[in-house]
TrEMBL record:
Record keywords: Hydrolase, Signal
GO molecular function: dipeptidase activity; para-aminobenzoyl-glutamate hydrolase activity
One term under GO cellular component: cytoplasm
Entry protein name: Amidohydrolase
An individual GO BP term: folic acid catabolic process
Residue ranges of every copy of the Peptidase M20 dimerisation domain listed in the record: 215-293
Source organism, top-level taxon: Bacteria
Record keyword Cytoplasm present: no
Organism of this sequence: Croceibacterium mercuriale
Signal peptide: 1-25
SUPFAM superfamilies attached to this UniProt entry: Bacterial exopeptidase dimerisation domain, Zn-dependent exopeptidases
Length: 529
């Protein structure tokens, strides 16, 4: 793994010394001014979109309301909609083409919520809107509204100035399950795309290139089959499928000590049987295996498969497995990142006011988190780390990064030091902090998209970097097979049960100026804490 990192650093250094020749090539200033003004003119639409998607609170594979809402806006604005792409009911694309020729630029961000993280926005107290329901504890309600605003602004400039090219918007469905983007790539959704811009919510405003310090991963569910029997009257006649699952877990936990420092692995038992006096005939355990390289991910996957078979033999059961998702290691594109960062610097951080800063401080103090103000300066352009990787989270945008030149722009729509995958990360996501961050992010995306549409050399440099640097280190080698299918059954039961309760909290912009107003929350809500 260290050899791979040295190859990557060496290739990036060689590329940097050679120079790209496009550092200052960009769209005309007048185009960028028009796009910036267009995004500002749609600030109200941004607020409504962000608040609406927050209120839908849909987890992976259940983003039906989100899909209908966002595609409705895009269709009204001249985009061609295709739903159900890659065999996933809630996945879609929205395409607009102007003129003939020109590059095809993909614009995407994640849309799904997280189970159990329902939260009233604008308050620092843990207050679920619907107890036990999903919520946006990662802030994924903000990314696609950003992309819609950016696309509308770019489309307006293209039509006014006769700029040729194609825009393709797409949502990251079920990202929290790492369950779709590898299928998008496998099924050809990005064929013909020249470059992709992806966004993710943050308290920062930045981008980067080279191999990420986060991990790729594979998601696998192992199902053990045994034989039921009376748990007290004749336990010897049964073969416990739960024993098989638990033996696998015990084995994996002992093996952890002897796995690379870069790995992360975790599991939940999704089916442990029915009741204690029946020997479980069926049991399932769901694993995430994470590592930094394709080879590392496959090694963990192979170890897990071997361990499951051994556990089945020990328990007298059988085991089958299903790959539920995959995320390739991430690799950002240097020419795209450099162009985007110049635009991030030009846009700058949102103008936070005293209420925004007071609100941020209130959230941090109420939840015992480190107090830090909303940031006043954009972050740095990051390159490959020289540190030994020690593992971390995953995002299946990595698969698209190996299909087409891609970057992630992190935009400042949340408060510093909130806890990821936690209700604290949802508290600001339908407030002015989120709205202002999305407007800033939409400007950076629109300006970078215009650079790509009007600067053929930038597209060429991005593609050459991918070939000469990225592909020199590794080749795309996912665990996913042609036989694997998207796990679209996930979260169906919980949403069938909870959606009627969630619908009572859907945002109604015809009646309320903001979602906070609809919920009766005063901003910045400091006195109430």
């Amino acid at each position: 793994m260290r050899n791979i990192r040295r190859v990557a650093l060496g290739a990036v250094a060689t590329w940097a010394m050679a120079g790209t020749g496009i550092a200052h090539a960009e769209a005309p200033a007048a185009y960028k001014q028009e796009a910036t003004a267009s995004v500002d003119g749609n600030a109200k639409l941004v607020q409504v979109m962000v608040d609406s998607v927050f209120s839908f609170a849909e987890p992976g594979f259940q983003e039906f309301q989100t899909m209908d809402y966002l595609t409705g806006i895009l269709e009204e604005n001249g985009f061609t909609i295709e739903k159900g792409v890659a065999g996933i009911p809630t996945a879609w694309t929205a395409t607009f083409t102007h003129g003939s020729g020109g590059p095809k630029i993909a614009l995407g961000s994640d849309v799904d919520g997280l189970l159990g993280l329902s939260q009233k926005p604008g308050t620092g107290e843990i207050t679920p809107l619907v107890p036990g329901a999903p919520g946006h504890g990662e802030g994924h309600n903000s990314g696609m509204p950003l992309m819609v605003a950016a696309a509308l602004a770019t489309k307006e400039v293209m039509e006014k100035n006769n700029v040729s090219g194609t825009l393709m918007l797409w949502p990251g469905v079920a990202e929290e399950l790492l369950a779709t983007k590898a299928f998008f790539v496998r099924d050809g959704m990005f064929e013909g795309v020249d470059a992709c811009i992806f966004t993710h919510v943050s308290s920062d405003f930045s981008t980067g290139y080279g191999p990420s310090t986060s991990n790729g991963m594979v998601s696998v569910e192992y199902t053990f089959k045994g034989k039921t029997s009376h748990g007290a009257g004749a336990p010897w006649a049964g073969r416990s499928a739960l024993d098989g699952a638990e033996l696998m877990n015990i084995g994996w936990n002992f093996r952890r000590e002897h796995l690379p420092l870069t790995q992360r692995s975790h599991y939940v038992i999704t089916n442990g049987g029915g009741q204690p006096n029946i020997v479980p005939g069926d049991a399932s355990v769901w694993y995430y295996f994470r590592d930094y390289t394709f080879a590392g991910i496959r090694s963990l996957y192979d170890i897990g498969n071997t361990m499951s078979e051994a556990a089945a033999q020990m328990s007298g059961t059988t085991v089958t497995r299903r790959t539920l998702g995959y995320a390739a290691p991430q690799w950002g594109n240097q020419p795209l990142a450099e162009a985007a960062y110049a635009n991030i610097q030009a846009v700058g951080m949102p103008q936070w006011d005293a209420d925004d800063q007071a609100f941020a401080r209130m959230l941090q103090e109420t939840n015992g988190l480190t107090v830090a103000p909303l940031k006043a300066e954009v972050g740095e352009l990051t390159g490959p780390s020289t540190e030994r990787p020690t593992g971390g989270g995953s995002d299946d945008i990595g698969d698209i990064m190996w299909a087409v030149p891609t970057i992630t722009i992190r935009f400042p729509s949340n408060v510093p030091n909130m806890i990821g995958h936690n209700v604290t990360a949802a508290m600001a996501m339908a407030t002015p902090v989120a709205h202002k961050g999305v407007v800033a992010g939409a400007k950076a995306v629109a300006l970078t998209t215009l650079d790509l549409l009007t600067t053929p050399a930038l597209v060429t440099a991005a593609q050459r970097y991918q070939q000469d640097v990225q592909f020199a280190s590794e080749q795309y080698a996912p665990v996913l097979t042609p036989e694997d299918t998207p796990a679209i059954h996930l979260n169906t039961e919980i949403m069938n049960r909870l959606r009627p309760q969630l619908q009572e909290f859907y945002y109604d912009p015809a009646k309320h100026d903001s979602y906070l107003e609809q919920l009766g929350v005063d901003y910045p809500n400091v006195a109430a804490q």
